[in-house]
Amino acid sequence: DQQVKQNSPSLSVQEGRISILNCDYTNSMFDYFLWYKKYPAEGPTFLISISSIKDKNEDGRFTVFLNKSAKHLSLHIVPSQPGDSAVYFCAARDYTGTASKLTFGTGTRLQVTL
Amino acid sequence: KAGVTQTPRYLIKTRGQQVTLSCSPISGHRSVSWYQQTPGQGLQFLFEYFSETQRNKGNFPGRFSGRQFSNSRSEMNVSTLELGDSALYLCASSLSAGNNEQFFGPGTRLTVL
After folding, report:
1. B98·A97 Cβ contact <8 A
2. B85 in helix, strand or coil?
3. What is the mean pLDDT of residues A23-43?
4. How would you write the pLDDT of chain B (113 residues) with one tens digit per residue?
5. 3-class DSSP state for residue B86?
6. Is A57 exposed, middle or buried (0-12, 13-18, 19+ CB in 10 A)?
7. N or C: which end of chain B has fewer CB within 10 A?
8. Is there a contact between A58 and A78 (Cβ–Cβ < 8 Å)?
9. Rounded Cα distance, A31 and A53, in Å
10. Under DSSP, is residue B83 helix (H, G, I), strand (E, B) or coil?
11. φ, ψ at A82 (rounded to 5°)
């Protein structure tokens, strides 16, 4: 049962344009959402996050939007750059008060073309 | 500040063997989580350790186990290896249990023949 879904395995965007990566979740107990970027042969790198009490968080070129009623979040990258080409994972936190667990989506491979 | 380190980076084993992977968290971080990454499955949570205690566990068989030492370093062990255990095993550290931001190591690529 995939609680966090990234339905687009790949996305190709032209340099300078907007990249929009989507993520859906099913567990209403998730209280925090994160995006990670992963290059080949490296571990995932934290990119940006958002608490479930907010609907938008912005950091430079990266903005994450959360729609709790739709259980949907998206990552916007504007403008996209070739160095953004990587696999992006959406993750959701399930926090019990003493321990946490991140549930990851299967990833979206973003390719930014010249 | 050194990042999360994992050893070894690559490992080849045969079915039925056991394997131990090691993770050293970022200095000052006391929580270590382990994940398995396979193609098409994304990253799947194995377990989280904090203060030498397992705080949370994912849906993996008992062949997968781990421990954490007093210096926060962690090891995970997989016994009676199966072909399906071939994966990238990632370790992540954070300041404390339940901390939002986890920092990942480069992973150990395990191949089971």
Report:
1. yes
2. helix
3. 91
4. 679 999 999 999 999 999 999 999 999 999 999 999 987 778 899 999 999 999 888 989 999 999 999 999 999 999 999 999 999 999 999 987 766 788 999 999 999 99
5. coil
6. middle
7. N
8. no
9. 8
10. helix
11. -55, -35
* CB within 8 Å: A49 and B100: yes
Phi, psi torsion values for A4, nearest 5 degrees: -125, 125
Distance (Å, whole) CA A42 – CA B39: 15
Residue B39 three-state SS = coil
* 3-class secondary structure, A82: helix
Q: B73: closest CA among B9, B5, B1, B24?
A: B24
Cβ distance A104 to B43 less than 8 Å, yes or no, reads: yes
Nearest of B18, B45, B38 to residue B84 by alpha carbon: B38
Q: What's the alpha-carbon Rg for chain A, to the nearest Å?
A: 14
- Does residue A40 contact residue B37 with C-beta atoms inside 8 Å? no
Residue B5: its H or E element: strand B5-7
H or E element in which residue A91 lies: strand A86-95
Residue of chain B whose Cα is closest to the Cα of A42: B106
The CA distance from B60 to B46, in Å, is 7
- Retrieve residue B60's tokens: 């993996």
Cβ–Cβ < 8 Å for B60, B46: yes
Show residues of chain A in contact with B104, CB under 8 Å.
36, 43-45
**Residues facing A22 on adjacent strands:** A74
Q: How far apart are CA A21 and CA A19, in angstroms?
A: 7
